[in-house]
Amino acid sequence: MPELPEVEITRRGIEPFVLGKTITGVAVRNPNLRQRVPRKLARTLVGQRVKRLVRRGKYLLFECDTGSLIVHLGMSGSLRVIEPGTLPHEHDHVDLVFGGVALRMRDPRRFGVVLWKDGDAFRHPLLARLGVEPLGEHFSPEFLYRATRGRDVGIKQLLMNASVMVGIGNIYANESLFRAGIHPRARSGRLSRARCERLVAAVRDILLAAIAAGGSSLRDFVHSDGSSGYFQQHYYVYDRAALPCRVCGAAIRVSRMGQRSSFFCATCQKK
Which terminus of the chain has a smaller tally of CB atoms within 10 A, N or C? Predict the structure, then answer.
């Protein structure tokens, strides 16, 4: 699934083509995504000007004159800049046309979202209860220390809890915990302030490094121009089960935690 770095890279890639531009056409070929695309989407969007393009967690918000278009890339989606009229492929479900350029949403698994919200988009149920941004000022060692108190859940599951902090999926949770030297099963409520400080720094460093590397191009994710990221070449633990740790040489282990595969080095990461 595209995580925070991939969504932020998508935002940066498409922003020059949509910011300040007016939507001149909409094509919905398959409305059956995670939530059904509104029947009146084209009528609502045509004539709207995109005033701002922001990311909230893994959501993109096209803030327009009277409301916002909310887009989520789901498990396998991408937004690509194309020429209007380019022949679609099987999984190309929605096009937004901005005069001489268009955005095309491709979503093979159809877990994405394309919705309209009148007025304040942050009041939409999908966004209203989201946690803090890990690259924002509110994500601090003190915040994480307070958020972990009284919680018995493993710290990896807490990192991926969008009501606490947003945008951190399986890849970057694994990599951040390795960098911080913390085992993914470490009890959240037992983390010291010092370990919270290390983990906050690790999360920020990993996310920024992933953005700088163009994200992780696994399975279906590509940039808005069709190119790929290369952060996966720098993984220390994710998807490296049985391979030697890049730091100590011990075999990377994998186990199931919260329905997801967790990768870790039992030598470098402590509970």
Answer: C
